[in-house]
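Q: What does the assembly look like in three dimensions?
Context provided by user:
Components: three
Sequences:
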Amino acid sequence: MIPLNWFLALSAVLFVLGVVAFFVKRDLITMFLAVEVMLNAANLAFLTFAKKQGLLAGQVIVFFVITVAAAEAAIGLAIILLVFRRRKTIRAEGADEMKG
Amino acid sequence: MAEMARLFWLIPLIPAASFLILLVFGRKLPKTWISLQACLSVLASFVLSLASFGELLKTAPSSLPLVKTLFSWISAGRFSADLSFHFDPLTAVMTLVVTGVGFLIHAYSVGYMARDRSYARYFALLNLFTFAMLLLVMASNMVLLFVGWEGVGLCSYLLISFWFEKPAAAAAGQKAFLVNRIGDAGFLMGLLFLFLFVGSTEFRAIDQAALGGGLSQGAATLVCLLLFIGACGKSAQIPLYVWLPDAMEGPTPVSALIHAATMVTAGVYMVSRMHSLYSLSPAALQVVAVVGAVTAVYAATMALVQNDIKRVLAYSTISQLGFMFIGCGVGAYAAGMFHLTTHAFFKSLLFLAAGSVLHALSGEQDLRKMGGLRRYLPWTYSTFLIGAMAIAGVPFLSGFFSKDAILSRAFAAGQTLVWAAGLLAAVLTAFYMFRLVLLTFHGRERLETEAKKHLHESPPVMTLPLALLALFSLAAGALGLPAVLGPHLDRFFRFLAPVFPVAQEGPVSPGTEWALILASVAAALAGIGAALLFYGREPKIPAWLVHRFPRLYKALLNKYYVDEFYGLVIVNPLLRGSEAVYRHFDLKIIDGGVNGAGRLATLAGKALNSLQTGRLKDYALGLLAGLVLILGALLL
Amino acid sequence: MAIALFVVLASIVIGSVLGMIFSRTPAYSALWLVLAFAASGGLFGLLDAPFIAAVQILIYAGAIMVLFIFVIMMIPRQEVFPADGRKVRLALSVLLAVVLAAEMGVALLAALQGDSAAGLSGLGSTRAVGRTLFQDFLYPFEITSLLIMAALVGAIVLSKKRAKE
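A: Here is the predicted structure of the complete assembly.
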């Protein structure tokens, strides 16, 4: 009833928005949020194709993606906290100690 | 006896085993053990050789030679070479000489090298040499022969530069090896062409091809000349003889063994072995004879004026080798081998006796600082005298018969010039040998006080071999008496006859034969007489001659400046050339390339370094760009 | 009917994301994103994946975003961050994003030609998903538990304050 194309188009748009958000934002936490947006867009695409092919594997994959995203968020935020403790700010600029 | 003879292939392997043991454990073994093991291994080979020789005497010629193939060594397409030994009369003669004389020299070395630091290394190398030489003479194909050929060359190098801390010794070893290498290049090319023409390097196959008409004269000439270049290197003929005088830097027993009795005779053996090839090419044979004759005279002239006792003997060896090649060159291979055998006896005797003199004089080698030694060194003197008489061709000693055999056959083959050259060389030989005897053992004592302090006769372990060799030098002539003295007295030649089926000498009337014998006797007596005159009665004559012909004397003393000539024309340009190549090609291009690659990697790294800014968003940009590109590629 | 639902939910999602982009503070951005994920969950439901929809709302919107908000609250208020400088990089990234969008558009048009959803058919029922998860994907499932524990331990260790030395 709903053309699946639309879901995919939505997924594409969300992904691109996430990309732009990543480059536009200046603090680490918001950049991380943009990554979550991209993940969500991917999930949407997975489910769309699962529906099209009638395979549950797509849905199971989304299950795992969400789980891993949770783990990733935990660690990522811990790291951001550490960076903050060191530099007293969450600005993305100037965090270039891995230079070279 | 027959069972022992069947083990003839063990003859080279026993000294090889001894070498290996000495190589690994030498330094930890007591001297007595080393001496016993080294000498007894060679003695064992000698006994085996005797047994095999005895067996050979009983075997009919048609079932010769005895062959034993150990295993198939190389098998590559059309080319194959086995590790197989064979035993025929020619090989029998060589093995008996190598192991017999070799054993005596091993025993002598026990005394001579008694106080040397590297006792084990010495005997290990001597054993290795014996193995290589036996390999050479017992090989049944040219490839295995070449292995032995190279092996003796290697041992020669190692033994010449035995006392390598002496720069002169190290240089001499290097020179020997390099000059030999040039000869080896010729040998290898000959070997390759031989394989090309015949399809195999087995002696049997070569003989069949040559005698069966499968080889053209041109092909045979090419191969023979190339192989002869190798023989010139190994047997010190013109132009590759320059290493032998320098080789005297090595210990005297080494000079006796390698540079008198065995290694230098390898060339003669090889040419004799290839006789069927040489018989196809009169041109090559002529070259061999002429080179031998010229070398014989040439070297003898230099021996006339040398002041070092060993150098005189070295030039004498070169000259006598020339004689052997004369024999081969006129087709009298058996005569050449006979002279090889007698020469092994008296030349090694002379060298060992000279070593005894050195030993007594604490190392003095200069003739001008000797004299009157016969009172102090009776054994040494008497044996040396016998050796000198033998080589000079005094009648009834072995040298007389072997030299006469060669010269008479040369004359019979119509090579009058060669015969004349040989006769001249014989006169010179007698002269310089007795000059040596007189200057060393007779006359006024010109010894230095240091040398005189420890003057003593050598211990029995050294004098016994001298005595034995003297005995052989005296008696060996009986093996090869000329036909005019009676039938069936030429046992040596008849023994070797089956090996050389092609007889090349014309018949000689008894009258001519006697005339030739008289000529040889006259030559010997003339030389000895002149020496007695110059150095006994009227000692002023040599000095007057030097005064009258200064430039000739200088040329002779300086070996005709040949070494300097080679240095100028060959060695120096090569050295300069290699240095130039090194500087411009090696350093700049090759090193430049290698270092350049390294520098390129570093530069690339530094360039790529600028990509790593450490900033998160820059990396993300890269990711994004990559993603876009990949997706684009997939879509297109 | 379903289409209307789709349009509404889609609008909410896109709008929330835009809101997230244009918010001044991280706190507001996070909140906008909670809304976005919730609406996303609804969209999942439209795709015949009720179980996944529930998981999305429970975990993503309910746990992950809450975690974000906790951390945001731990960080004192910073000065206001206007949009990012570094003009070149920004321009380049926007350009690339547009190209990406175009490429994805092309890919989409090729992938599904006017394919229609066949309505809800019980494809992604909890029973079905559970069965698949525990039969075909048992191994990854178990491994994931290890993963979560690793993340747990890691987060704790990382964020522990160093004892005074």
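Follow-up: Chain A touches chain B through twelve residues (CB under 8 Å).
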